[in-house]
């Protein structure tokens, strides 16, 4: 009996140690501590700079847009997030010969975190860095929501993944943070990346998560509940849609509105942002969007009108989704 009790106590102790070890492992690999680094305060600070008059509406090829790309480059350098192009070179030149007549040379901005186990599989998180510049009457179109909100969201997501990497939890797959230019004049920056100079092979690109306007509330959602329109999540991969839904329910529980995902929707938003250049190459996509509002493409699209608590939660949703896609065993299946 004494021998039995000794064995029983040992078994209980071993089980307790295993449970403790498992709990510790789960805690370490949870994305939640890193999601908490994404804050409304930081988003607001960056957006008030990025959508300031100093950047002159970020018109493609114009001086304000050049200031914008320098701001993005300096952010990545400050946070020790490298470029996949070459050390210190974060700019992918988009030449004027590729752009509409009269447009000056411009740049996409690229940064990345290399995957630990599947570095040749690439998850892209994209947003456009440009806006419509200065109106003929001299008014500056700051583009705080379009797409300053998506731009600063990517910066926060990159910072969160870098914090995880520094803690020893780098993603299994490589994550490319892609800021594309010339969206407002025909999705040209993303088209240049996909059609002319993909830094990573498109056949190894598993998904594009595209963020274009996620800082405001449209007329349909004035009830105060946080929401996002999702477009394209089920177009090429039902599995991607299922992953997206599961991640949302587990972590943030936003209202996901699929109104604009309808093939018959007259707005045709699926074809109107940078994810489409990935989708046309059979890469699964999700387009995150808050809908249009009265300040769309007007000088009144300013940073004081952004709902920063909503922006924080929406950014965290994209981060959680990216975490799952970057770390799951298999890439999502293409239907």
UniProtKB/TrEMBL annotation:
CDD domains (UniProt xref): M28_like_PA (cd05660)
Peptidase M28 domain mapped to chain residues: 108-320
InterPro entries: EF_Hand_1_Ca_BS (IPR018247), M28_fam (IPR045175), Peptidase_M28 (IPR007484)
Alphabetic keyword roster: Signal
Gene Ontology terms for molecular function: metalloexopeptidase activity
Signal peptide: 1-21
Entry-linked SUPFAM superfamilies: Zn-dependent exopeptidases
Superkingdom of origin organism: Bacteria
Listed name of the protein: Peptidase M28
């Amino acid at each position: 009996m004494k021998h039995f009790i000794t064995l029983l106590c040992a078994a209980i102790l071993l089980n307790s140690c295993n449970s403790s070890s498992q709990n510790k492992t789960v805690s370490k690999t949870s994305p939640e501590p890193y999601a908490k680094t994404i804050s409304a305060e930081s988003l607001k600070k960056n957006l008030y700079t990025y959508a300031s008059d100093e950047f002159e509406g970020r018109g493609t090829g114009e001086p304000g847009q050049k200031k914008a790309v320098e701001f993005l480059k300096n952010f990545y350098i400050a946070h020790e997030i490298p470029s996949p192009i070459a050390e210190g070179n974060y700019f992918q030149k988009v030449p004027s010969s590729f752009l509409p007549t009269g447009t000056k040379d411009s740049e996409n901005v690229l940064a990345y975190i290399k995957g630990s186990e599947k570095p040749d599989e690439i998850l892209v998180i994209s947003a456009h860095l440009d806006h419509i510049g200065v109106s003929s009457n001299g008014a500056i179109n700051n583009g705080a929501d379009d797409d300053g909100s998506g731009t600063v969201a990517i910066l926060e997501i990159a910072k969160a993944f870098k914090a995880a990497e520094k803690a020893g939890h780098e993603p299994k797959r490589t994550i490319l943070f892609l800021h594309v230019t010339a969206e407002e004049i025909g999705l040209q920056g993303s088209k240049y990346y996909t059609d002319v100079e993909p830094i990573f092979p498109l056949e190894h690109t598993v998904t594009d998560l595209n963020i274009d306007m996620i800082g405001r509330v449209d007329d349909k959602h004035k009830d105060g509940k946080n929401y996002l329109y999702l477009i394209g999540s089920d177009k090429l991969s039902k599995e991607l849609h299922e992953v997206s839904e599961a991640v949302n329910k587990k972590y943030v529980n936003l209202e996901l509105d699929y109104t604009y995902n309808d093939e018959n929707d007259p707005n045709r938003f699926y074809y109107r942002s940078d994810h489409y250049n990935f989708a046309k190459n059979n890469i699964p996509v999700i387009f995150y969007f808050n809908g249009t509002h009265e300040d769309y493409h007007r000088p009144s699209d300013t940073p004081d009108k952004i709902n920063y608590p909503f922006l924080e939660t929406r950014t965290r949703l994209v981060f959680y989704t990216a975490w799952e896609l970057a770390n799951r065993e298999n890439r999502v299946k293409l239907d």
